[in-house]
Amino acid sequence: MVTIYEMQAGLSRRELLKRGSIGAMLVISGSALISPRNAWGLEVTALKPETMATLIVLARDIYPHDQLADRFYAIAVKGQDAKAGKDAAHKELIENGVADLDKRAGGAGYRSLGWEDDRVAILRDIETTPFFQAVRGDLVVSLYNQKELWPIFGYEGESYSKGGYIARGFNDIEWL
Amino acid sequence: MAAPYDLKDDSVVVIIGSGAGGGTLGNELAQKGIDVVILEAGARHEYEDFINDEWDSFAQLAWLDKRTTGGGWRVAKDFPNLPAWIVKAVGGTTTHWAGASLRFQDHEFKALTNYGKVEGANLLDWPITLADLEPYYDKAEDKMGVTRTHGIEGLPGNNNFKILKAGADKLGYKECHTGHMAINSADRDGRMGCQQTGFCFQGCKWGAKWSTLYTEIPKGEATGKLEVRPQSHVVKIEHDSSGKATGVVYADKDGKLHEQKARVVAVAGNSIESPRLLLNSHSSKFPNGLANSSGHVGKHYMRHTTGSVYAIFEKPVHFYRGTTMAGIVRDEARHDPSRGFVGGYEMETLALGIPFMAAFLDPGGWGRSFTSALDHYDHMAGLWIVGEDMPQEQNAVKLHAELKDDYGMPIPDVWFTDHPNDVAMRNHAYAQGQAIYSAVGATRAFPTPPYPSTHNLGTNRMSEKAEDGVVDKWGQTHDIKNLFVSDGSQFTTGGAENPTLTIVTLAIRQADHIASQMSAGAI
Q1: How close A89 comes to chain B (CA, Å)?
Q2: CA geometry: angle B302, B358, B329, nearest 5 deg
Q3: Residues of B in contact with A127 (CB under 8 A)
Q4: Are residues B316 and A154, on separate chains, in Cβ contact within 8 Å?
Q5: Which of B33, B292, B315, B497 is deepest in the core (most CB within 10 A)?
Q6: Is B408 exposed, middle or buried (CB count within 10 Å of its CB: 0-12, 13-18, 19+)?
Q7: Which of A3, A4, A25 is nearest to A16 (CA)?
Q8: Does B80 touch chain A (CB under 8 A)?
Q9: Alpha-helix residue ranges (DSSP H) falling in B333-480
Q10: Collapsing DSSP states into helix, strand and coil, what is residue A131?
Q11: Distance of CA A150 to CAs A158, B371, B374, Å?
């Protein structure tokens, strides 16, 4: 289950500095990831919070949509934490996979690489690995199957309850 | 009410599968007063239970029993356990199909004669002609309410069709319209007209699209001569010492095995399960499986040469609104070897929702090249290519050497590799599809690879001579007189057309034959 929750209040600048930020957006606090600016948080139970933070960046690098907020990617990879909680082998696959990304990135790790191109260059080298395939294969469903995201792409979803499109624009194209 | 038949009743015709072939055959026989039991592996979901949601519907309807696949096709890599996207439910894949109902062309029944020998392919002429089938095509079209036949109006064109039509006109194509669809354009046969809802692939919640689930099956049940037993997965066909089929063994919803006795057995489980069942029914008398003296059971698996072209335009399209398969270009369906391949193909509009577009646009694809396509989802138009593929001996449904299902039966292992003719046809179709969209100002186009197969054909093929195939011109197996094949696995060759209309047509014709053979005491 997804346990993204709304935050009551943002953290102080001092708190942010103390805890260290992920990119400019996410904060690790104990077992949670917090997005102070966008007021949501994500409880992590099986994976390391740092691992989950990297998965969120990785998810955006795999399916980058600049119009999507981080929370869509956070919801999409939350299942990796749940699966890791039930399956030790899966936990190892993910933890080792993320550790490998950090190693390949060098320095402060994968998340610290500022340019998407630099991160993607690493991903191109590992795209056939079971780790990458497990993340991508899950993500293509867990990201794009979020109903809240469909309107952003102009997809209207279920239409039966509205009587279909017979009176709602099935043939409304005007520019041809 | 549906008649309940006793397991020991050996006077019944047992049909395995309730889709286009089995559901139609069952009703046709029941209408003639013949007692029928249809055993359907899947559950019964009435049309109001269908779900306007791609993944949820997939979980409700798709055949998800484990299968493996191999060979050169990309599906083996991208969907290693899903060679086919077909249905496990009462109504079979007629719940999921798009509704395109095209007759085969005359020359396609004589593929070997008209195309000549094609290296690497085992082309064969059908033992029947278009003229043989025309009266039955006529009945099938009437039964299914096919648009542009029997005075039935065509469906109105949606936005996706309008783009196809504008491009086809610019290219000089002559035959482009909203298709011959088994979707009511107005109320007919107690079912309502199309509401342009989309989600044709997820089961039509209005019942406007023909499916055996809410046409043939209830009509058959109303005679009192048809019982449909859902969640009854047949694992073996039994025979006596003379080699005559005597009944079938099936697992009920709890996995408990039963044997239903039968006077006649008709196999209609689609082109993967039907040959699998015949192969799994091997015995000391038939060590290579039932009806397999020719060795052809499972061979010549065909799946149509398919692919899609999606394109992005400057302005919105909203192609997911309305009928999924909303129009067709037929000009390339002719046989014209000057194009560099034999046989022909159709181009039919297609739309997917965001979840399936993400899964199928470029399976395994990622990064900005991929996501920037989805960013313009509401500016997309799309078409599907469906063309004749070559029957090849090594393209086959085999029994897996190790893996078994819940009932201990080997699972199917589906092998497919494109023939060079298939590749040449697909490349031609990709170019023509992209040209259609370029002609109306597409800014970007995507030649999308084939999806898991929905048109599964040819694995129990029909032949004049017993050594060339599995069944005769009636779908009666060459080896066992009271054993029939009633689905698309009978197809000798694939043609360019969506197969359902021809499957229904063959089933209506087969019902006449079974009834006359039964009354003559021949079976």
Answers
A1: 22
A2: 50
A3: 366
A4: yes
A5: B497
A6: exposed
A7: A25
A8: no
A9: 354-360, 368-374, 420-439
A10: helix
A11: 11, 14, 11
Q: Which residues of B touch A144 (CB under 8 A)?
A: 354-355, 357-359, 374
ipTM tops 0.90: yes
Q: How far apart are CA A59 and CA A171, in angstroms?
A: 36
Tens-place pLDDT, residues B244-288: 999 999 999 999 999 999 999 999 999 999 999 999 999 999 999
The chain B residue lying nearest A133, using CA atoms, is B364
The answer to whether B95 and B211 have CB atoms below 8 angstroms apart is: yes
Q: Which of B166, B196, B379 lies closest to A170 in CB terms? A: B196
Residue A39: inside a domain: no
Identity at A113, one-letter amino acid code: L
For residues B211, B217, B220, B224, the Cα torsion angle rounded to the nearest 10 degrees is: -160
Domain span holding position A121: 45-168
Cβ distance of A157 and B378 shorter than 8 Å:
no
Mean pLDDT of the region B54-72: 97
Most distant pair of Cα atoms in chain A: their distance: 58
Of all helices (H) and strands (E), which one includes residue B118?
none
CA B492 to chain centroid, in Å, comes to: 14
A3 found inside a domain: no
A40 is a domain residue: no
- Sheet containing B36-39, strands listed edge to edge, beginning at the edge strand earlier in sequence: B226-229, B36-39, B13-16, B264-267, B483-485
Using the predicted structure, report yes or no on whether residue A21 has a pLDDT greater than 70. Answer: no
Q: Residues in chain A whose beta carbon is closer than 8 A to a beta carbon of chain B? A: 61-65, 67, 120, 123, 127, 136, 140-141, 143-145, 149-150, 153-161, 163-166, 168-173, 175-176
* B152-174: average pLDDT: 98
Chain B hits for A169, CB-CB cut-off 8 Å, are 318, 321
User: How close are the terminal C-alpha atoms of chain B, in Å?
Assistant: 28
- Could you tell me which residues come within 8 angstroms of residue B49 by beta carbon, excluding any fewer than 6 positions away? B60
**How close is the nearest chain B Cα to the Cα of A112, in Å?**
19
B128: pLDDT strictly greater than 70? yes
Q: Do B321 and A170 touch (CB under 8 A)?
A: yes
Query: Encoding tokens for residue B242?
Result: 């003379």
- Strand B36-39 relative to strand B226-229, pairing: parallel
Q: At what angle do helices A116-126 and A49-62 cross, to 10 degrees?
A: 90
Per the structure, the count of domains in chain A is 1
Tokens read off for B105? 């062309």
Q: Which residue of B has its CA nearest to A68?
A: B375
Task: Please indicate if any CB of chain A lies within 8 Å of the CB of B275.
Answer: no
Select the residue from A160, A172, A175 to test the B interface by mutation, using most B Cβ atoms within 10 A. Answer: A160
Which residues of chain B does A171 touch, with a Cβ-Cβ cutoff of 8 Å? Answer: 156-159, 162, 196, 322
**DSSP category for residue B266:** E
Q: CB-based contact (8 Å) between B366 and chain A? A: yes
What's the CA gap between B180 and B163, in Å, rounded?
18
In a domain, A26, yes or no: no
Length of chain A as a residue count:
176
Residue B58's Cβ-side half-sphere holds a number of Cα atoms within 13 Å equal to: 13
Task: Flag whether pLDDT at B332 surpasses 50.
Answer: yes
Q: Is B189 on the interface with A (CB under 8 A)?
A: no
Do the Cβ atoms of B202 and B54 come closer than 8 Å?
yes
What is the structure's pLDDT at B418?
98
